[in-house]
Amino acid sequence: MYLTNQVHSSYLDEMIQTCGCKGEEPVLYRCRDCFRVEMVCCACILQWHAHNPLHRVEEWHSTFFVRVSLKLLGLRIQLGHNPGENGDDFVVTDVHGIHKIGLDFCSREMAQIHYKQLICAQWFPATATNPQTAATFALMEFFHLLTFESKVSAYEFYHSITRQTDNTSTTPIRDRYSAFMGMVCQWCHLKVLKQAGRGHDPSGVDATSAGKCAVLCPACPHPAVRNIASTY
């Protein structure tokens, strides 16, 4: 297929288009994870990522792109309503990498405790006491599936995520491997309780007795569930 001169110009205009806001800020930023790949100004990149705070953003430096965090550009993540206690040293592990973020917890009188606010945002906290580390539900579910299908270890998976963050090893990355291992143990245990229906027991999870979470083998005879003939 050959392109006419007019179509050539149209293609080129789309490839080098500037920020749509027509502002005066320099057009230096692009996102590796958004569907839109054009370069935009700082104000637009922050507006785009108000609801996608864990995307990977790059900044143009004369002849090359450099990874830059949305936190450094001024983005803060608000849980709930009014900004309250902040977590400027908060670390979130996601399928896209390990992110240092600026986090504001809800300060309303009826606000939930911090770890509950994180769970409501589908972030799994590493601890219930003053959490400073979390992993997204998407990451935990992805790892859970991989352990069944590919038998990948937690060590290999976590270090693959660090490679997603920076494959050149030139940027310092906060080590959260120990916290990740603790979250994996808790996540798998909670999944077992959830799949066994223990969350709906009026007596609570603490009333779970031995064998309540076990899955009966369908091939074995179980007179109590009548999967064998009465004359067996």
Main traits of this protein?
single chain, 232 residues, 5-stranded mixed β-sheet, 3-stranded antiparallel β-sheet
Shape: elongated
The termini sit apart by 74 Å
Number of strands: 8
Largest sheet: 5 strands, mixed
Write the element-wise H/E pattern from the N-terminal end onward. HEHEEHEEEHEEHHH
Radius of gyration: 24 Å
Alpha plus pi helix count: 7
Word description of this protein:
- The protein has 232 residues and is an alpha/beta fold.
- The protein is built from 7 helices and 8 strands; from the N terminus they run αβαββαβββαββααα.
- The model has no long low-confidence stretch (mean pLDDT 86).
What is the topological layout?
Layout: H1 5-15, E1 29-31, H2 42-48, E2 57-61, E3 64-68, H3 70-73, E4 77-78, E5 83-94, E6 97-106, H4 114-120, E7 123-125, E8 133-136, H5 137-149, H6 154-165, H7 177-195
Parallel strand pairs: 4-6, 5-8
Antiparallel strand pairs: 1-2, 2-3, 5-6, 7-8
In short:
The chain is of the alpha/beta class. The chain is 31% helix and 19% strand.
